[in-house]
Amino acid sequence: MALVDLENLNKNNGKCYLAINDNQVIGLIMGTIPSYDKYDYLDYKCPKRGIITELIVTKNARSKSVGKSLINKLENYFKDNNCEYVLVDVFAYNNRGINFYNNNGYHSRMDTKIKKI
Description:
alpha+beta; Aminopeptidase; four-stranded mixed β-sheet; globular
């Protein structure tokens, strides 16, 4: 999966940042800036956006501002590349993740439902 993620970063103007403490990786964030094609503009005017594709912080490093530092770093990269918005998908049952993003200024834009059939 890591190779797929890195290829996605490479193809979509992406970045990956690591949080390191005592030579140990304690956090990782990945994000992309996908480009639009001419057909996207037929339906709507698309503001440039960055997408957070991964944010992982080890259990021992949680609640110690590691995630906040990583998200700030990636948001600055997006701003430097003229993005107007940041998107992130969070699983509905991931209350810790939902609260983290809410506390960092994110809000829900839509609610997607899924059903196994």
